[in-house]
Amino acid sequence: MADPSLPCELPSRVGWKTRFRLFGATLLERLPSDCPLCRNGARGGALCGGCHHDVVHAMQSGVPRCAVCRLALGPRDHCPDCTVRAPAFDAVAAAFDYAGLGELLVRQFKAQRRFGHARFLARMLADETVARWGVLPGNTILVPVPASRSSIVKRGFNPAAELARFLAPRLGLRHCPELLVRRLDGKRQTHLQRRQRLDNASGLYACTRPLGGACVAVVDDVMTTGSTLDGIASQLKEAGAAQVVGLVLARTPYRSQADG
Questions:
Q1: What CA–CA distance (Å, rounded) separates 78 from 72?
Q2: Strand pairing class (32-34; 41-43)
Q3: Which of 238, 198, 240, 236 is nearest to 217 (CA)?
Q4: Which domains does the chain have, with CATH numbers?
Q5: Helix, strand or coil for residue 43?
Q6: pLDDT for 230-244, tens place per residue?
Q7: Cα–Cα distance for residue pair 72/63, rounded to 1 Å
Q8: What distance in Å separates the CA atoms of residue 165 and residue 191, rounded to the nearest whole number?
Q9: CA dist list (Å): 239 to 44, 177, 180
Q10: Within its chain, how far is the Cα of 23 from the centroid?
Q11: How far is Cα 52 from Cα 47, in angstroms, rounded to an integer?
């Protein structure tokens, strides 16, 4: 079994300063700690090998998934999200499903404000991104989904922004959180139907400058219907992005769409 404490291979374009910081972080990640899920021995505050395997297994098991949004298809032969309306984004990488231990892990991070999870969760997402696509194009810009004011007040932080902060150096990408702004809070999406989610996300976000053919990687914690990413991708492509991909920590299964 692969050691979950080891970082993914860095792109050659990563500078020596970033490599030095990541080397220091890797040393810290080797310190003994308790697994956040089972409390057995682990390293650096991350998951133990067994829990890591259990969390990512469904995503890596080869079950049929939508080639665009990574939704597990189950007995269906088509994606119920992407066939409702073709998404503006091009593809998605997700570290694990928002179910079982994966859901518990995300809830620890978001609801229980375990900020220390961001480092190893970003590493898990980086590993999946590299496994899915290899090295992203050199002109890729990394940007987190902006949180609403009400969400910031409730949690005290933006989970997507924390993930992006640790993810960017691991993938050797330019981190530009100021590229996206949220125009208004909009309705809370938890209890909205799928079509309502798409309509609610339209016009919520704006790109702050022309993109001139860049690739943009949008970071989020949980992806449910893809409505948020779709609305953002539309704005980014209007601003000149050649490609928009989503890097999401967890993908919600169709049977339990509930969280964003």
A1: 10
A2: antiparallel
A3: 236
A4: 64-256 (3.40.50)
A5: strand
A6: 999 999 999 999 999
A7: 7
A8: 30
A9: 40, 16, 11
A10: 23
A11: 6
Q: Which residue has the tokens 């169709």?
A: 254
**Residues in Cβ contact with 29 at an 8 Å cutoff, skipping those fewer than 6 apart:** 5, 7, 43, 44, 45, 46, 119, 120
In sequence order, which residues have a C-beta less than 8 Å from that of residue 173 and are 6 or more positions away?
136, 140, 141, 142, 167, 217
Structure confidence by residue, pLDDT tens digits, 98-157: 999 999 999 999 999 998 899 999 999 999 999 999 989 989 999 999 998 888 988 899
3-state secondary structure of 133: helix
H-helix segments, 30-175: 49-60, 100-110, 117-133, 149-155, 159-171
**Which H helix or E strand runs over 251?**
strand 243-251
**Closest alpha carbon to 226 in 137, 94, 61, 63:** 94
Residue 153 to residue 72: CA distance in whole angstroms = 33
What is the end-to-end Cα distance of the chain in Å, rounded?
32
What is the pTM for the complete model shown?
A: 0.84
Residue 223 makes CB contacts below 8 A (sequence gap 6+) with: 69, 92, 94, 229, 246, 248, 250, 251, 252, 260
Please give the structure tokens belonging to residue 7: 């970082």
Contact 43, 5 (CB under 8 A): yes
Would you mind telling me the total number of residues written for the chain in this entry?
A: 260
DSSP summary character for residue 148: P
Q: Which helix (H) or strand (E) holds 144?
A: strand 140-144
